[in-house]
Amino acid sequence: MKNFLYLSIFILFTISCSVGPIPVYYTQPIVKVLDDTLEVVFSVPDKDASGWNRYNPSNIGSDTVYISPEVYEKTGTKSFIEKIEYNFIVDGNSVEKKTYEYDIPIETVDKDTISLPELMVIVNEQLAYNIDIEDGYADNVGNGILELLVYYTDLKGEQFSTVPIRRKFKVVKPLTY
């Protein structure tokens, strides 16, 4: 009986001390988009004066706003920014989502803050009308949230995304005299 007890303890001890796989602790890059809280205003003219909903495709009004997001890599790990996605959200509903992909990924290193190339956000009459209708009132003014999301990869090619930042936006139809 004594031998059985010693043998059981020895087997349990041997099993608990077995050499298993050695874990590799991997540090993932964490990229943060620095937030800008200013409201973005799009002034979309109605070129043919028939309303945003009745535009002529050859003569369509639009407004362009250039956004220069800044990103910060928090862990000191090299990462490569590949694309930016922006989404127009009105009353919780996505009205339009677009993605801009960089031909050559932008490298971030050593906890550095970098400015990304300007992102050209265009609102034409059709999108302005959709935003205006989605916010509940057809009053030639639309309000919502512009959401920016940055996608990046690490050295192994795994893709990650930042926490989205949100900025208020307004679409207005300028008065014509």
From TrEMBL:
Protein name from the UniProt record: Uncharacterized protein
Organism of derivation: candidate division WOR-3 bacterium
